[in-house]
Write a structure and sequence with these properties.
The complex is a heterodimer of chains A (about 475) and B (about 500). Chain A is mostly helical. Chain A has 20 helices and two strands. In chain B, strands 1-2 form a two-stranded antiparallel ribbon. The model of chain B has no long low-confidence stretch (mean pLDDT about 85). Classes of the chains: A mainly alpha (about 475), B mainly alpha (about 500).
Chain lengths: ~475, ~500
């Protein structure tokens, strides 16, 4: 049995059977369409950030205009005083942005359900009451995105099934099994070679889609290693499905029954297992109560608290405050002490965000633990992490927003306690106290590779054992 | 003249007898087919497990919501003597109750927050949705009865019916039955009913599990009309799938020829087309970027809807009118606190701005919904999916209704507070004014009134029509194929 013959034979089976040929065509069309949808999503992501930045810039320029014309407030807001840091902070037009990664075109992950940009001031809190997702129809969100990750997770296995389900079964039904043994020697090698050949054709389709997406989204040039990792993960998933197909075919049944078993396996792996795995998560008990407490009760409570206690808290976070003129004076000015409230509010909202983050980390851990029974999600997760559209990427962004907000509180306290009168130039200084604009694409956990690799290996071994037994 | 009336009932009875016999035979055959029985049992277990987990999830969410409602109310009721405007900023919360049928279909709820902050000056959006803290696992589906009922059960029906006629025809059984006097139509309808019966049995399993859990754990009882409509929609859909599968089986040359188009239709209709349709609706009617929307609202509120009526000038006009009406020279001399009047005027203006922008957004969302409803005419899976959410009270329209009711409450709450600020006994500029604690305790709390079945019907009738039209078309297809069998 020569590999080249098998390849040529399988190639003819693909090109001469309308069902197989059309399934490959549908895969390519769906892949192309998914890349287009991914590209549109990334384009609207960029547009939304640009619009956000433009609005923030306009606010800053308006404040600059007031200051440069000698005014410290607009006529309709006479209580404002741009000579003070607290108002410069509000009107500096700082903007926090999580940029789309060049690989986001492949996998939009949960980026359409999370916020990726927000105007920043000292009390910014990165929970979704402020860092809100773009306005979207929830019916669209619940249906899910049509990206390449979806095509690879659900379509690709189906196409492989269509290309391979009658391998060996057809020969058996036609009474040609004996002839196969005569020519091929070990039938399991013959089955493996034929499934492998179809796997190779499918791999070529996958690689082509990745190249097109890599060129369209810029991932091939900007992140070649990550692009290659995404392609490798996709091929590993395909290998896993080759294993599933081979194991089913090795049982030696009729082609139609093999098709049914493979369809059931497909439903189990791509629909049922991820949904069941979704049950394994850490619920956030009494979240709503925490929300009400952090965003209302704690915001209004500090007014009644002891300013000395709040000052100590602020000194711990910003030691340089102790050296300010106001702190050294030993007097208490209610107006300046009001800014100590910001520290307390930040701590309160940080506790809430921390609680949400902890629940999210717990969910990620639980989800990753289920990856062993959920290889479809292992691929989805791996691609989402590479594309910076997984919950971990968004959490990283939120953390940077939180840290920038804290830096702004410190700066306002320093400026106000130092008695500084702000100028137009300070608008730019405050605009700069923001997380660096970058994307949050990263490397997936080793477990993703191990899970997909182990499944592929295990199925390969199971195939050999079963096929030999069938012999 | 006397012969005809006697012959008709006999023929009618014979058809019914054949029908009953075919249904019984098909069911026995299905039970004897171990593979199908195992698949059906697995699907039933999945559906029942989905009902159990869905029910527990709803109980958990409802428990959390009740605790939060008590917490928010306690905060408000415990305000004590307080400045009414400060109380408007202190605000309160609206928490959307989880409907009993959400246990069967969570719909859009994982993506729409059920927590809404209500305060003066500003209209917040519902926040803290499940998707805000969920991993990408959410993208691959939520385990719930709707997943099993919408995806797995139709596949099971296809697998049970695709060979029902073609196999008998290949074996020559069909011809023998027709020769013995059985009418092909009766044979086909028997197979349709047997196949649909499998789906109805799955529905019964889910319904029974849901009812048992509801009786055991109590909680809010769903409306009987809603529940019945929910199951009826699925029942009609299963009839449609069964009829289409049997018709395809009868029309195809062999079983394999029937399976391929049925599987393709299932895959395309249930998984691919809905995703492409929502993306298409979004591309046809794009929503504006959040930043654009918020800037436009802020600008209109500050500079006036036409950009030439700034808020300070509006205030000045209002003050001049009030001073002229009461014949005084200064706001401090007015017999009420003019600040309360200004707050309410600003609130009214802000409400008008919000109504306009929310209306525009709503218009786009409705246009997207209409596009999806048009698409649902071509895809009964999409029609069922939307109808299921609508009947479970978990679709977009119910989410918007919650937002509307909460906003109406917010306006009434702020109006009361501003009225108290203006007419509660203080004078203009008296910032230390405090309304008594009884006033705050006397403000009624937010209570969400879940809309009835008519609300769902008014929004989802195109899906109902689509589903019924498809069911009728499938029934006609069975009739046509039966006639062809007779000719053969």
């Amino acid at each position: 049995m020569k590999g080249a013959y098998v390849l040529r034979f399988e190639w003819r089976r693909v090109t001469r059977a309308p069902l197989r040929l059309s399934s490959v065509a549908v895969l390519m069309v769906a892949g192309g369409l998914s890349l287009w949808f991914g590209h549109s999503h990334v384009a609207s992501w960029r547009t939304a950030l640009e619009e956000g930045r433009a609005a923030a810039r306009a606010e800053r320029e308006q404040a600059r205009g007031w200051l440069e014309s000698g005014r410290r407030s607009p006529p309709e807001r006479p209580w404002m005083d741009l000579g003070r840091a607290r108002w410069i902070d509000v009107h500096s037009g700082a903007f926090a942005a999580s940029e789309p990664s060049p690989l986001a075109i492949f996998c939009i992950g949960i980026s359409d359900a999370r916020g990726y940009g927000m105007g920043l001031w000292r009390l910014s809190s990165p929970h979704d009451q402020e860092l809100r997702p773009e306005v979207a129809n929830p019916e669209k969100l619940v249906m899910g995105g049509f990206d390449l990750a979806f095509v690879l997770v659900t379509f690709l296995p189906l196409v492989l099934i269509l290309l391979t389900f009658d391998i060996a079964g057809w020969e058996r039904e036609q009474g040609l099994a004996g002839l196969v043994v005569l020519h091929a020697g070990a039938p399991w090698r013959w089955v493996a070679a034929r499934v492998g050949a179809q796997g190779l054709f499918a791999s070529a389709c996958v690689a082509l889609l990745w190249v097109v997406g890599g060129l369209a989204g810029g991932g091939l040039g900007a992140r070649p290693a990550m692009w290659a990792a995404g392609l490798a993960l996709s091929l590993l998933y395909l290998l896993l499905w080759c294993g599933v197909v081979a194991v089913v075919l090795a049982r030696g049944r009729q082609a139609s029954l093999n098709a049914l078993v493979l369809i059931v396996a497909w439903v189990a792996i791509t629909i049922v297992a991820p949904a069941v795995a979704g049950l394994v998560r850490a619920p956030s008990d009494r979240l709503e109560v925490e929300v009400a407490r952090a965003l209302r009760d704690d915001v209004y409570a500090p007014a009644a608290r002891d300013p000395e206690e709040d000052a100590e808290r602020a000194y711990r976070l910003f030691p340089r405050l102790r050296d300010s003129a106001y702190a050294r004076s030993g007097t208490r000015d209610p107006d300046r002490d009001r800014r100590l409230r910001d520290v307390r509010i930040h701590e309160s909202t940080s506790r809430l965000t921390g609680r949400l983050d902890a629940a999210e980390v717990e969910r990620e851990r639980a989800a990753l633990a289920t990856a062993w029974i959920n290889p479809a999600w292992a691929l989805q997760h791996g691609l989402s992490v590479l594309a910076g559209t997984e919950s971990s990427s968004h959490r990283l962004f939120r953390e940077e927003v939180r840290s920038a907000a804290l830096r702004r509180i410190g700066r306002v306290l320093e400026d106000e306690w130092g008695g500084r009168t702000m100028t137009a130039a300070d608008l730019d200084v405050y605009a700069g106290i923001a997380p660096p604009a970058r994307d949050y694409g990263g490397w997936p956990a080793p477990r993703v590779w191990v899970v997909l690799g182990s499944w592929a290996t295990l199925l390969g071994v199971a195939f050999v054992v079963l096929a030999r037994r069938e012999e | 003249m006397t012969a005809t009336p006697k012959r008709e009932p006999t023929r009618h009875l014979r058809v019914r007898a054949v029908l009953a016999r075919v249904v019984r035979h098909e069911m026995v055959a299905a039970l004897r087919d171990r593979r199908l029985a195992v698949l059906a049992a697995a699907a039933a277990i999945l559906a029942a497990a989905g009902a159990v987990t869905g029910h527990l999830e709803v109980l958990r969410l409802e428990e959390r919501r009740t605790a939060a409602v008590h917490h928010a109310r306690a905060g408000w009721d415990g305000l004590g003597p307080h400045n009414p405007h400060a109380a408007a900023h202190y605000g309160t919360w609206a928490f959307k109750p989880v409907g009993a049928l959400a246990a069967l279909d969570r719909g859009v709820e994982p993506y729409t927050g059920n927590v809404l902050r209500l305060e003066g000056h500003v209209q917040h959006e519902p926040a803290f949705a499940q998707a805000a803290v969920e991993t990408s696992l959410l993208r691959l589906g939520v385990f719930q009865p709707a997943l099993v009922l919408q995806l797995v059960t139709p596949l099971l029906l296809v697998l049970s019916a695709f060979a029902s006629v073609s196999r008998e025809r290949e074996a020559g059984l069909m011809r023998q039955l027709v020769v013995q006097g059985a009418r092909p139509a009766a044979l086909l309808w028997g197979k349709v009913l047997a196949c649909a019966g499998l789906g109805w049995a799955m529905l019964a399993a889910v319904g029974a599990t849901h009812a048992l859990l509801a009786i055991r754990h109590g909680g809010e009882a769903p409306s009987a009309a809603r529940t019945l409509s929910f199951f009826l929609a699925y029942g009609v859909f299963y009839f449609l799938v069964a009829a289409a599968s049997v018709a395809a089986s009868a029309a195809a040359r062999d079983a394999r020829g029937a399976l391929a188009p049925l599987l393709a239709a299932w895959l395309f209709g249930s998984i691919v087309f809905p995703r492409v349709a929502v993306q298409g609706a979004d591309a046809l009617h794009p929503l504006p970027a959040r930043a654009v929307l918020e800037k436009a609202m802020a600008d209109e509120r500050r500079l006036g809807v036409d950009g030439h009526d700034p808020s300070d000038e509006r205030r000045k006009r209002l003050e001049e009118e009030a001073l002229a009406r009461h014949g005084v020279a200064r706001a401090e001399d007015l017999p009420f606190n003019f600040d309360g009047i200004v707050f309410q005027a600003d609130e009214d203006y802000g409400n008008a701005v919000w109504d306009r922008h929310f209306g525009l957004r709503l218009g786009i969302l409705k246009a997207q919904s209409r596009a999806l409803q048009t698409a649902a005419l071509a895809d009964p899976f999409l029609a069922l999916r939307s109808l299921s959410m609508g009947l479970a009270g978990t679709d977009l329209h119910h989410a918007l209704d919650f937002q509307r009711q909460a906003e109406s409450y917010r306006r009434e709450l702020v109006r009361r507070l501003n009225h108290e600020h203006a007419w509660g006994g203080s004078k203009t500029g008296e910032r230390g004014f405090e309304a008594p604690a009884e006033f705050f305790r006397g403000v009624p709390h937010f209570r969400y009134r879940a809309p009835g079945l008519a609300f769902s019907a008014s929004h989802r009738h195109p899906e109902v029509l689509a589903l019924v039209a498809w069911a009728v078309a499938a029934a006609l297809a069975v009739g046509l194929v039966a006639r062809r069998l007779e000719v053969e």
